[in-house]
Amino acid sequence: MAFVQRFVSVRILFVGTNLLQILLLIINYKLKMEIALLILAGLLLIIGIIGCIVPGLPGTPIAYAGLWVAQATDRVDFSWQMLLVWGIVTVVVSILDYVVPAWGTKQFGGTKYGVWGSTIGVFVGLFFGAAGVIVGPLVGAVIGELFGGKEVADALRAGWGSFIGLLFGTLLKLICCGLMTVAFFQAVF
């Protein structure tokens, strides 16, 4: 009888030890996943900031994805209202990025020809890398104004407005991604 009690006690202790080891493995795995997700979220935010400047890389949506990855962890708890507002801001800033160069053209005396040229220049510039995205709206506005019968000086002024609009759009994206990054670091630390 003593042998049976000792065997059962040892067996229960063995099973309990295995459960404890399994529990520790699960906790260790979960901790490693938390760290991996937070690192991924931080990388997405950094890539988002870089994407504000580098053409062809949608910076603001990438940074917004970083907020969602951080939300998937236990350490970060953004409210649904905050995530909704950041989603709306992301969409608006992404749209403005294409609209603002045309608006800048108009503000600097451009006509509808310059506005259309600037808009077309934004999209054509995407195929020519960084230089194309920077120069595309400017050249498009100038060509549009020249096509519309403007003098070279007036066409260049409209092109300059398009370039200023592009810089303003880039600044908007940088501010947006910068604030998302600040929100991330406040939530994590």
Main attributes?
single chain; 189 residues; mainly alpha; 6 helices; 0% strand
Descriptive report:
There is one protein chain. 85% of the residues lie in helices and 0% in strands. The longest helix is centred in the N-terminal third of the chain and has 50 residues, at 2-51. With 189 residues, it is mainly alpha-helical. The radius of gyration is 27 Å and the shape is elongated. The termini are far apart. The chain has helices spanning 2-51, 59-71, 80-107, 112-125, 129-147, 152-188. The protein has one domain (2-188). It is built from six helices and no strands. Helix 3 (80-107) packs across helix 4 (112-125).
Q: What's the topology here?
A:
Elements (H helix, E strand, L loop, with lengths): L1 H50 L7 H13 L8 H28 L4 H14 L3 H19 L4 H37 L1
Helix pairs in contact: 1-2, 1-6, 2-3, 2-6, 3-4, 3-6, 4-5, 5-6
Helix and strand run: HHHHHH
For this structure, the quaternary state is: single chain
Query: Which residue ranges are poorly predicted, with pLDDT under 50 across at least 5 consecutive positions?
Result: 3-14
Tell me the overall shape: elongated
* Span between termini: 58 Å
Number of domains: 1
Instruction: Indicate the mean pLDDT.
Output: 86
Radius of gyration: 27 Å
Strand segment count: 0
Strand content bin: under 5%
Could you give a quick summary of the protein structure above?
This protein is mainly α and 189 residues long. It is built from six helices and no strands.
